[in-house]
Amino acid sequence: MRKQSPVIGIIFWILxxxxxxxxxxxxxxxxxxxxxxxxSTPDLILSDPYWGNxxxxxxxxxxxxxxxxxxxxxTGNAVICTVLGFFACYALSRFNMSGKESIFxxxxxxxxxxxAVFLLPLFxxxxxxxxxxxxxxxxTRIGMILVYCTFNLPFAIWxxxxxxxxxxxxxxxxxxxxxxxxxxxxxxxxxPLCRPGLAVTLILTWVFAWNExxxxxxxxxxxxxxxxxxxxEYVTTTGTEWGVMATISVFTLIPALIVFGLVxxxxxxxxxxxxVKG
Amino acid sequence: MQSKRLGWILLAPTLVILFxxxxxxxxxxxxxxxxxxxxxxxxxxxxxxxxxxxxxxVFDTAxxxxxxxxxxxxxFAVLSELIIGxxxxxxxxxxxxxKAIFRTIHTxxxxxxxxxxxxxxxxxxTPSIGIIPHYLEEWFGLTMxxxxxxxxxxxxxxxxDIWHWTPLVTLTLIAALVSLPPDPFExxxxxxxxxxxxxxxxxxxxxxxxxxxxxxxxxxxxxxxVDEVWMLTGGxxxxxxxxxxxxxxxxxxxxxxxxxGSTISVIVLYLTIVSCWLLYVTMLAPRSKRG
Amino acid sequence: xxxxxxxxxSALALTLASAAYAEESADFWKKAAEPYQGVTIRGVTExxxxxxxxxxxxxxxxxxxxxxxxxxxxTSWDQMFDKAIKDMEAGTGIYDMAYIEQDIIYSxxxxxxxxxxxxxxxxxxxxKAPTYDEANFTTFANYFKDADGNLYGxxxxxxxxxxxxxxxxxxxxxIQAAFKEKAGRDLVxxxxxxxxxxxxxxxxxxxxxxxxxxxxxxxxxxxxHVASWYEYYESIAPTFGVYNWxxxxxxxxxxxxANGGAMNSPEAVEAMTWWLSMRxxxxxxxxxxxxxEVGTTFGAGRAAQGLVYGENAGWxxxxxxxxxxxxxxxxxxxxxxxxxxxxxxxxEGYIGYYDGGAFGMPHSSKNKEATALFLQYIGQxxxxxDWAVAAPRVTNTATYEDPKVVAFNDExxxxxxLIKDKGYLFAGAPAYPFHAQVREATAPIFxxxxxxxxxxxxxxxxxxxxxxxxxxxxxxRK
Lengths: 278, 291, 478
Fold this sequence. Notes:
The structure holds 3 protein chains of 3 kinds.
Chain A: H1 6-31, H2 35-38, H3 52-58, H4 61-94, H5 100-112, H6 115-129, E1 131-132, E2 135-136, H7 141-166, H8 169-177, H9 182-193, H10 195-211, H11 214-219, H12 227-232, E3 235-236, E4 239-240, H13 242-269
Antiparallel strand pairs in A: 1-2, 3-4
Helix pairs in contact in A: 1-13, 3-13, 4-7, 4-10, 5-7, 7-10, 8-9, 10-13
Chain B: H1 4-33, E1 35-36, E2 47-48, H2 52-58, H3 61-92, H4 99-107, H5 114-125, H6 131-140, H7 150-178, H8 183-190, H9 195-224, H10 227-232, H11 244-252, H12 258-290
Antiparallel strand pairs in B: 1-2
Chain C: H1 3-33, E1 40-46, H2 49-66, E2 69-75, H3 77-90, E3 97-101, H4 102-111, H5 117-123, E4 153-166, H6 167-170, H7 173-183, H8 193-209, H9 227-236, H10 266-280, H11 291-299, E5 305-309, H12 310-318, E6 329-332, H13 340-345, E7 354-360, H14 368-379, H15 384-390, H16 403-411, H17 415-422, H18 435-450, H19 456-474
Parallel strand pairs in C: 1-2, 1-3
Antiparallel strand pairs in C: 3-7, 4-5, 4-6, 4-7
């Protein structure tokens, strides 16, 4: 396999990419078709695009605030989950705490919960318990960041654990011998070595938060509404505005691509640590 | 070695957040699951009814059926994602021109929200006018109608899930593969081990924790799938794609059956934990000996 | 004309037209609102065009006039109910206004979730606007009143589910001749189910013969979405004489024939059988069609006739950006079985669905006074005509006479005339506080009938039994 010509590899990847891209291409096609044409015979090739939906979406001030909320909530949540998850993994990996394997398994059970019924207690907690005077946690960005931790923090811990476990303990010990303190070991030695795992975790937690719908739909009203809840506004009894929905999704690809672009090179950076020849 | 106190300090934020946003709501749900409670019943209050809900669930054919289709869905979708995802992750370990671009392309489906994925696939598969049924008909004379054919709807949902989530498997496995130390592989090659031997005896055991973690994540996410299926089929035709997530959603939202809905959720959560625990123990048992 | 364009245009028109009456009434609003300057009231609604009109046009106007800010959260149909229910159940007071649909009003009333607007204004005469009067509303407002006639919601959407047909096809001489030769009668909108079926079969055949994407009827027959359940119970069963889902509220909520209900009666079976036969000759997307797709199917010119929600009738008939059949749409009353029209005239039955919603005030609202002002504001006759043109809906009797609305009525093929003259024959949802509960319990069986897993008789028997069991569980059926 290793000796095959690169041409076959490229052809393989182009095929995979075409399959991957087709639904996204189709999303774009939907976004540049007037509603009239959506239910006529489909054409594979796009002709005579219509940009009305783009004008509509671009001019929508509410969508812009949704976009900002989404970016803040997903970025905040991803960073918090990745960092806290890394700390937790370091603790689980390096310290001989009693019951730590049970704790490790327990964390993931938080992600298993079917969300529909948990909305009610979360709603009650965030309106009646987690309040300071008139201020409620409901419908705030920080509230959503914390709520999203219930599924993203376990995810971060579980994806980072193998990575942190894989960093030889001898490295820590060598550093301690050289006089480093615990904080320095964690941040200067282990953290950088975990970069590929951290990058992947950051991307994926970001993606989960970015795409979450049900919790955001219930637990935000005016101030912290995210893009996915904005999208659902276009599903109505009068008809679903497929074109506008598709256009918004095309717009949402942009911040997502930026985040991916920023983080992806760290996955590559990891390759220097130990490449596998399979 | 170091003081355990530092360990607990590092773990504390995680435990605190999960307690306030995961454990407390969970207790509430367990509490409600022992009650009959529908705000639009004649008696809108919560009424304690012991284990009645749990007794009812055993004979609830709609629920049992939804468990059945969910398990089928999870097996088909997650297995395919694992196999394809691993193959692609391995392929990405090689160097080839345009690799960064291809990897970016491959991760694109992840950044699409499930409700959008559901919408696009719905438009692509609308009987007679969606692009897929249209060209199946025109090129191969096949009729595909996700409104009437349960297998077609089920297959579409599985394909959609594979399309959407294989990149996640690829990414986590890439992270695992790049972190592997090179020495054992070099040693094995020197010893003249074949590719298959290397995979079974070295690669797989070493990435097993990552594989298990990935399978877990996909497994539990597939069990909770709602948005995509909601948009694509609504659980239909009939109950062909009425997965537990969708089933619970219908029980809790339109039906406002909070009591019984909580019971179903507790049971589903319990089943998920048990199956994951079994998987965890069997897959990682050899590793734990290592200490 | 696109909705947004209309919105802009009518906002402008509104400011100009309202200048005259504003002079006198502005004083009232300013004075009444004085104590509530700077208050923000919040509402939750579905993002339908009438609601968007409130958010984009009426709310900003009201704010400019009174200094009371109005935030309207628009969301999807499923979410809207859940959010309002959670808020009102917990008494949180997030919302001052909630969209209440036909389907849910009786559930809310049963729980005392809403504020009695009639009573509230009587108790606070200072807040009563001179330009607001409950008597201005059409009969549709009756669906938001309790037994004593107190109003709990200001109507803001009202539609009929009507029989739409393609005038261009029905008036084509060649088609007329072909139909006459085949059927032995003239091609006119159907009055009976047999006529409707005959026309449907004719056009489906016609489409096949000439290789057109044309079928004889629409069918909202999704096999996994409650839209199909609604089409049958709102629009098909009543035309066969099965009213209120076949459940008898005065007889211990009986559903099965054995107990005195009609859910599995011979008429119900006949209705189901007829509807399934129509579904079979409808466009292939019908088994995956909700209200959205039925509208789009008709708008794309794929059906010669069909039952379509009034929400969609507007854009199908008049919005060239979304519809291919602009100016080619006629409206008529749905086909009926013998005796149904007489039942409806006598007030004992109905021939279809009078659909819509209102804005109500949750009992937990913390800004009731300011909210009452806004609700009166959107209920005034003066704001209605532009609203009716921007988002086809009529809630006040006077609106029908407005020149703008009269002109728009022609564009819509006489749709407003139909509401005005025949609206009384239609009815809203049955007065059941268990609407969604029984619907969800029976819907899975309903889908089995659609898929042919159960015959209509077997399926309806099972649905009746399930409905009764659910009603017993909930405590309504003793």
